[in-house]
Design a protein that fits this description.
By secondary structure, the chain is α/β, with parallel strands linked by helices. It has helices at 13-24, 41-47, 76-90, 105-117, 131-138, 152-164, 169-172, 187-195, 247-253, 295-303, 331-338, 346-369, and strands at residues 2-9, 29-33, 51-53, 58-62, 70-74, 95-98, 122-123, 146-150, 177-180, 200-206, 211-215, 218-219, 224-228, 231-235, 242-243, 254-257, 260-272, 275-281, 285-288, 291-294, 312-318, 322-330, 377-381, 403-404.
Length: 405
């Protein structure tokens, strides 16, 4: 048995919503596409078949942070299991405000979970995210319980807005939960959210698990998590069928042991007291002076320093050490955090202040992670590059941009 596979434009929210109703009813399978006009007949045929097995309902094309495109095939049963688990974990059925790209699992889930709960999603403002437009979107929700999913950069803008405009905090109280996933949320942000009475839930998962399947370090629904050789592995009813048209990659990542199928996430982590702590990516570990250094761990320490919450950390070749961590900061953040109000030139005051700031950062990292993890340089660039889902694009080559301190 097979089902027709349709490409559906996410530029038409009503059309996508109707198509997703058909997905849940197993009438067809779909691929949400952000720019359907850019998909030619030839590329459509190369990327996607006309029909798929009847256990495939939704195909999400994603490259994650690795840059390698994959077509993740999800079943209707997995999508429903994910929605039901989230509903229980969050305290009940609710309506979702949709402000994330709906060709990605995080965004399409806001539609699917609303549908499973019996609501139409609130179609949020589609332009650049601002806290004020997001709060306006909340006011259009009609259900008793209201949820939203944000990436960390959006959460940061919301926290800043509510801190600067206390009178707006009442509008944010419409929310019963904000899911934040995609990358680490610094502890300092969590403290700020708590003071603002923002109901923050940290979500961990991926397209291969129908989105978040671990909230605040604890499995939801029938999800199971284990650590093997330092890697996070996940089992449960929300796992993808695999990668469409790539059986080799499917067999490598989804491994069956006995009667249990495990997804090998590629993330590193540990379980302490029954709580999962994700520490980074297997592919983001560099060897510096013969010592393994997790760039994710360094980045988490740097981001907890006030004023550095949007910085990222990448690896850079070094003749002496092999590779070293380097902090990347945007010019806008550098102007705000490193320069005085009347400074206009990075070459004068900025370089001096940047060197002083890097020295302070180095001490913080040294104390937390050891000497090998200390960032050796600070690069100030025009902007940090992000993937559509909100994760930093670690494949982007920054070495020819901006200023090096």
């Amino acid at each position: 048995m097979s089902l027709p596979l349709h490409l559906v434009s996410t530029e038409n929210p009503h059309g996508l919503l109707t198509a997703l109703e058909g997905v849940l009813n197993r009438e067809h399978a779909i691929v949400p596409v952000a720019d359907i006009t850019g998909v030619s007949h030839r590329s459509r045929a190369e990327l996607f078949p006309e029909r798929v097995p009847d256990d495939v309902a939704l195909v999400i094309r994603t490259s994650g942070s690795t840059g390698v495109p994959k077509n993740v095939a999800l079943s209707a049963e997995a999508l429903r299991a994910s929605a039901s688990a989230a509903e229980v974990a969050l305290g009940g059925a609710g309506q979702w405000v949709s402000v994330l790209p709906t060709h990605l699992i995080s965004g399409v889930n806001t539609y699917l979970r609303s549908l499973v709960a019996g609501y139409a999603p609130v179609e949020g403002y589609t332009g650049p995210f601002t806290a004020r437009t997001f709060l306006d979107d909340l006011e259009r929700a009609s259900a008793n319980r209201v949820y939203a999913s944000l990436v960390p950069a959006q959460l940061h803008r919301l926290l800043e807005h509510l801190e600067e405009h206390p009178q707006e905090r009442k509008r944010a109280q419409r929310l019963d939960a904000i899911l934040v996933g995609g990358q680490g949320v610094p502890y300092s942000w969590r403290e700020r959210a708590a003071k603002l009475e923002i109901p923050l839930r940290r979500s961990y998962g991926s397209t291969e698990t129908c989105g978040g399947c671990v909230y605040d370090g604890v499995e939801i629904g029938d999800t199971r998590v284990r650590i093997r050789a330092g890697q996070v592995q996940i089992a449960g009813p929300t796992l993808a069928q695999g990668y469409l048209g790539d059986s080799e990659q499917t067999e490598r990542v989804f491994v069956t042991e006995g009667e249990t199928r495990w997804y090998h996430t590629g993330d590193t982590g540990e379980i302490l007291g029954g709580v999962l702590r994700v520490t980074g990516r297997l592919d983001s570990v560099i060897i510096s002076g013969g010592i393994n250094v997790s760039l994710d761990a360094v980045e988490n320490v740097v981001r907890d320093v006030p004023g550095w919450s949007d910085a990222i950390v990448v690896g850079q070749h070094d003749e002496r050490w092999g590779q070293v961590p380097v902090v990347i900061m945007s010019e806008a953040d550098a102007q705000r955090e490193l320069l005085s109000a009347d400074a206009s030139s990075w070459d004068t005051e900025g370089r001096s202040r940047g060197a002083e700031a890097l020295s302070r950062i180095a001490e913080v990292v040294r104390e937390a992670l050891g000497a090998a993890a200390v960032p050796r340089a600070l690069r100030v660039v025009p902007a940090i590059h992000y993937l559509p889902g909100g994760k930093p694009d670690r494949g982007f080559r920054y070495e020819n941009e901006g200023y090096l301190v």
